[in-house]
UniProtKB/TrEMBL annotation:
InterPro entries: PH_bac. It comes from the Bacteria. This is Transporter. It holds the Pfam family bPH_11. It comes from Mycobacterium helveticum. The chain crosses the membrane at residues 6-28. Keywords: Membrane, Transmembrane, Transmembrane helix. The keyword Transmembrane helix applies. Residues 42-164 form the PH domain.
Amino acid sequence: MNSGTLVGSLIFAAVLVVVIAVLIQLMMRGWRRRAQRQAELIGSLPGMPAEVGGATSTIRGVYVGCTLSPAWNDRVTVGDLGYRSRAVLIRYPEGILLERSHANPLWIPQESIVAVRTERGMAGKVGARNGILAIRWRLPSGAEIDTGFRADNRDEYDDVLRETQQ
């Protein structure tokens, strides 16, 4: 390789690194702006009550994220709601608790739950047929969001679906 080719390759590599850095910065700026726009709409999340009854079912899996209802691809980015993580879904008579790894627990009160169903995809995450448990619920601010959870064993959805329909 001669020195002209080497210099050209180094310049191309440097330009490529700068372009990638700019694209990452623009993506992060878009994520932050979306969070600012959604902050007022989402408001504060409900806290877990001091006392709850016994857990009726426990499911291990992945917290997929939250989306603004009814747009299954409009991801909520406020706080840590937009980050996927390993999670445990615990069903109580008073509501549903999502214990998420490296994120705050998410409490969904029973009186806020509008619907619980299975979906093929949500927030860019596509699974097998009926692979994602989607919980539509109303926030204290009045907005409705869908919270997605993908279980390690999809057969465990039946218990949660049955309890919600009662």
